[in-house]
Amino acid sequence: MDALNKNEQAELQSRMERKQIKDFMTMYSRLVQNCFDACVNDFTSKTLHTREENCVMRCIDKHQKASERVSLRFQEQNAALMQSGQLPGR
């Protein structure tokens, strides 16, 4: 980013932020759809049954823990690469 002028840096930063928001919303939408599909199957009532509600909570918790684990592993890999000097741009 050092080769870019201030306007180009601001534009790049703005695009990166918009992409992050879009990626987050896509991930969130997939999570909602996956948990809904897996847990909600009785459409005779406007409210979730206890069984469905518990399933949704477990589903969300499972996805959140998996995401945290992947993030932790990614951080560990980056740290190892930085220590070994293999991470580009550092």
Could you explain how this protein is built, in words?
The protein has 90 residues and is mainly α. It is built from 2 helices and no strands. Helix 1 (6-39) packs antiparallel against helix 2. The mean pLDDT is 91.
How is the secondary structure organized here?
Blueprint: H1 6-39, H2 50-84
Give a quick set of tags describing it.
mainly alpha; 90 residues
Shape: elongated
**Cα end-to-end separation:** 13 Å
The total of helices stands at 2
The rounded Rg comes to 20 Å
Helix content: over 70%
Instruction: Briefly note the structural class of the backbone.
Output: mainly alpha
Q: Which regions have little confidence, pLDDT < 50, spanning 5+ residues?
A: none
How much of the sequence lies in strands comes to: under 5%
Provide a short characterization of the protein structure.
The protein has 90 residues and is an all-alpha fold.
